[in-house]
Each structure stands twice: as structure tokens, then as C-alpha cells.
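@channel sequence for tomorrow's demo:
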Amino acid sequence: MKSRSLVAAVAVIATLASGCASQSALRATAPPPQPARDAAPAPEPSPTPKPGEKPKKESKKGATEKGLASWYGEPYHGRRTASGEIYDMHEMTAAHRTLAFGTVVKVERRDTGADVRVRVNDRGPFVRGRIIDLSYAAAKKIGLDRDGVAPVKVVVVGSEKTPKTKAKEEARAAEHPEGGDCLWIQVGAFGDLENARRAERRLESAGETAVIIEGPGGLHRVRLGPFDNEKDAVKALERIGRDWPEAKAVPCG
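C-alpha cells (generated this afternoon):
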């Protein structure tokens, strides 16, 4: 009887040992689990500027800022930027929250050392930690088009007028050769008074001071101003250019 019990016990032990050995073999031959690969961050689009946010004056040459850079391309290619010019993803430009339009900066990747020079012509990015949004062409030059987001150092190296500002100044000079100082910014002319009032309310919600002036033929003209000098009028055009592309400067009187 004892021998039968002993044989049974030995058989159980052998079975357990065989199972443990099989599990150990499986653990030894199975590859270790691979960590999930982090997906490259998606490029951040250029957001709409915050209502009422005013850009700072151009920083002094050499001013430095550190943070993260991202980039934007489609579907913003061909759309109007905050500066008023049309966004071209193949030009060396960038969006910054506060630097004056036309500021030229050097953007250097702090992880690879690659750098590129760009001109600020748009507003953004409004994401914590991110300080500049590069055009597709600029991002591609430093490999940011592949990585999506990267740590950078931004250094102010100079400034230049935007093409849009140059065109406006030339147009103003042609329209007012005698250098008249008083100007309105006419946002639009509406046959329906209620439409004019809606435009007025929309402008005021964006921080602008708008007025409605009744013109000939029953048209209601929505305007900003008047402005005592061309410089202030051009700034007003730049502020509203994204939402009101047909806005234009007209002389007082």
C-alpha cells in the first residue's frame, strides 16, 4: 500500500516538474516585450490669434528664447496670415505669438544643431511650451518635418518689411501723392443696415472701434478710424486682414 502511494507521489512530482520545465522553456525562448514606439507628434496648425492680443515691438538683435518648435503646411497654404500676406508653405517664414511682423530670427535645433533663418509673418502657436511655428520649407531644412516637434533656440537677427506691407505702402503713396494724413479703413459697404450692424458688432468683439456711415445710394459703410497717419491705418489693416480681406484705406472727407 505504501509502495503504491509512493509511486503515485513520484508521478505527481514528475508531472509538476515537467510543467514547470515547459513554462521555463517558453519564458526562455519567447522574445521580450517591445516598448510601444512613440508616434511622431503631428505638426501643429497655425491657430487664430487671440482676440485683442497685441504684438510686442520688435525685440533687439540678439534676443534669445528657448522652447519647442512645430510646423504647419496644408491646409493653410494659400490662406491669409495674420500679417495680411498669403501663406506660402514653401517660403522661409514662421508664426510667433508676439514678435513684430517682419522680424527675422535664426531657429536652431538644440538636439541636432541644425538651423534656419525665417521671417515672422503670422501668429502662433498657442500651445504651452511651443514658441514658434515654422513653414513647411523651413521645417524641412532642419528635419522638423519628420519629427513634428523639437527643442529649439530662437535668436533675433534682424528685420525686414513684409511683402504685404511694402505693397500697401506703395499703394498708399500712389493714391495720396500729396501725403494726406487723415484715413479711414473701410471694411465693407452694405445695402442692408442689419448686415452693417452685424459687421460692426463682430469688429467690436475683436477689440476694434467701428462706425457705420451712410453713403450714397443707401449704402451703409462700416469703417475703422479715422487715423491721423498712414502708419496707424496700415496697422489696423494688418490686424483685421485675416477676417476682412477686402478692407481698404480711404481718405477722409
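heads up for whoever presents: The radius of gyration is 31 Å.
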